[in-house]
Amino acid sequence: MQANFIRQIAQKNPAEFQIETSALILYQRFFKYIWKEKLKLILASSTIFILSFVQVIIPQITRYIIDVVIPEKRFDLLPWLGLGIAGIALLIGGLNFARSYLMSLVGQQIIHDIRNELYQHLQRLSLSFFENQRTGTLMTRVMRDVDALEKLVTTEVAEIVAETVTFFVIVTYLIYADWKLTVLILITLPVMVYLTQVFGKRMRGVYREVQEQNSEINNHLQETLSNIKLIKACANEGYEIDRFSDYNRLNMEVNLRAVRLTSSFSPVIDFMNHLGYITILAYGSWEVMKGRMTIGDLTAFLAYLNHINQPAKRFSKVMHVIQKGATALERVFQTLDTEPEVKEKANALSLPSIQGNISWENVGFAYLPSQPVISNFSLDIKPGMTVALVGSSGAGKSTLANLAARFYDPQQGRILIDGYDLRDVSLQSLRSQMGIVSQETLLLHGTVKENIAYGKPSVSNAEVETAAKIAHAHEFIIDLPQEYDTLIGEKGVKLSGGQRQRLAIARALIKNPQFLILDEATSALDTESEYLIQQGLQVLLKNRTCLVIAHRLSTIQNADLIVVLEKGKVIENGSHSELIAQGGRYAYLDKMQFPQKSSLELQEKLM
Asked: Using one digit for the tens of pLDDT, what is the confidence trace for 374-432?
């Protein structure tokens, strides 16, 4: 019966039902982080309870002054009452400080833990996740969304908790003092609770839009600032300014909608509070004139009314904090719930020092189910071999390299390294023994030395210099202003394309890997640099396994085996001379790249 009832509600308004149920789950999960700081929470709660009882005392002092001290002209009591009020004020100030500080400690620790967990989870996610996400969106989740969570614990939300406790303490006392007047005080409360729920639902949706627009602006900033050279080269500054202006305008409009909603809620709550005040004032005045209540009693009740209404007033002001926090929770937990496509087994083996025997056994892979990239691919690379993959763009060459590094898992077949299935070994033990240089040069903002040593941070300066010399980077490095300590800028923007690529090669070599993947590694180099690096690699690659992906056939003529791919399948394989002799696809590609050589061979035959 209950399941059917829930299902019927969900069918009537599925969006609202989903929001309500997911909100409960979100806050339950968030409470687990809060509960880790239970000791600080208990201490903060104790200050809140003490404050609540102290708040009951102040109106009683006021009542006593009005009903006793003034009518009886007790001048002798005024100094003591003044000292008592001053002492209470100091106590309240100290308790407020302790509560605020403790709650801030809790909030800061929570965002520290969640931000760490979120960043660690992002590091564990598969490469495919980042290919489908925008950097600005992820930055917003790690920074702004997590910051919004702190306010769910600290600042004005903590005030709500304190004032709610005070509310129940005071109501308990008032029921004991005068239950009829207490009922009148509370008569507007159900209406305020209802209005809070109605506005809360609307504000949750608005603040979801606010967060989305913030992400859009962050994405636009990240993309345009990181590609500023492209924008200037295309003279598109005006176009990007207009785009940013559009995003900024949408962001302003959605924020204004949130402000209008919040601003319209506050006056409604204030009206209900004033309505309650008028009711108490009218009824209390009647009771005073009838002699059933003193002026001091009425004054105390009016003071208590202010304490009772304070949580509702405060809640109307901080509802935007709560709704922002709920939206942020939704986005943060959505990221934390994302499972990596490439999962490491719980009992994954630590791969021992590899010899370099790499095997693909009937491997099949597709980024999209209906578009296979690799089909029934098999290849066995013996230790110490240099194997080159050749083929048209989209033939699957880089995909095979990515599968070997286990950036993706094949949907069919398996990949072995020294007889170990890649899915059985830990990712760290696998990739720490590999060196990868891709066509897209990946460098960090830092010094030359830091970028070369990134593959193995514990290396010495001498090892960094040796790797740079093998990669033929040392010559240009010593001409830089601070040599190896020169900052190269974001993505190595201060260096040429060839210089960046040579640093990437040095970074791969610093690990002294037994298995090396060169994915168009020399594509950005001039002919002289390419030749020099090839000479260095010939020395380095002795007794090491190397997988080379290249369009420029001049770089792979000395490979032990050349595999020609088309549409994810092997159509030819052999040495350079064997493939030329076959006169197939490889020979055709060679002829297209070296037309002069083909002309000379034709002339020699004619002679």
From this structure: 888 888 888 888 888 887 777 788 888 888 888 888 888 888 888 888 888 888 888 88
DSSP structure class, residue 265: H
Report yes or no: 399 and 475 within 8 Å, Cβ to Cβ. no
Q: Are strands 420-421 and 515-519 parallel, antiparallel or unpaired?
A: unpaired
Please report, for residues 137, 140, 208, 244, 250, the alpha-carbon distance to residue 217 in angstroms, rounded to integers and kept in the order given: 9, 10, 15, 7, 10
CA 414 – CA 472 distance, rounded (Å): 37
- Each residue of 551-603: pLDDT tens digit? 777 677 778 888 888 877 888 888 888 888 878 777 777 777 666 554 444 34
Q: How far is 129 from 226, CA to CA, in rounded Å?
A: 20
What dihedral angle (degrees, nearest 10) is formed by the CA atoms of 393, 394, 400, 401?
50
**Long-range contacts from 519-523, C-beta under 8 angstroms, 24+ separation:** 519/397, 519/398, 519/401, 519/436, 519/437, 519/438, 519/439, 519/549, 520/438, 520/439, 520/549, 520/550, 520/551, 521/437, 521/438, 521/439, 521/548, 522/550, 522/552, 522/555, 523/439, 523/550, 523/551, 523/552
In the Cβ-directed half-sphere of 471, how many Cα atoms lie within 13 Å? 30
**Which residue, 273, 271, 275, is CA-closest to 306?**
273
Question: Coil, helix or strand for 572?
Answer: strand
The residue ranges of every structural domain in the chain are: 14-336
d(CA 357, CA 349): 17
pLDDT at 323 over 70: no
Tokens at 391, concatenated: 């083929």
Going edge to edge, which strands form the sheet with 358-368?
A: 371-381, 358-368, 412-417, 420-421
- Both tokens of 255, joined, read 């924020």
The length of the chain in residues reads: 607
More confident residue, 346 or 265: 346
The string of pLDDT tens digits covering residues 39-50 is 887 887 788 778
Give, for 374, the enclosing helix (H) or strand (E): strand 371-381
**Burial class of residue 39 in the structure, from the number of CB atoms within 10 Å of its CB (0-12 exposed, 13-18 middle, 19+ buried):** exposed
Residue ranges of the alpha helices (H) in 512-594?
A: 527-540, 576-582, 585-593
Residue at token pair 């992002």: 122
pTM recorded for the entire structure: 0.68
Tokens linked to 485: 């300590």
Q: What pLDDT digit, counting tens, does each position of 328-339 carry?
A: 787 888 888 888
- Among residues 31, 37, 28, 29, the alpha carbon closest in space to that of 105 is found at 37
Helices 295-336 & 38-64 angle (0-180, nearest 10): 160
Out of 1.20.1250.20, 3.80.10.10, 1.20.1560.10, 3.40.50.300, select the CATH number for domain 14-336.
1.20.1560.10
Distance CA 103, CA 161 (A): 11
Contact (Cβ atoms closer than 8 angstroms) between residue 211 and residue 323? no
Q: CA 104 → CA 155, 311, 332, 484, distances in Å?
A: 8, 20, 21, 43
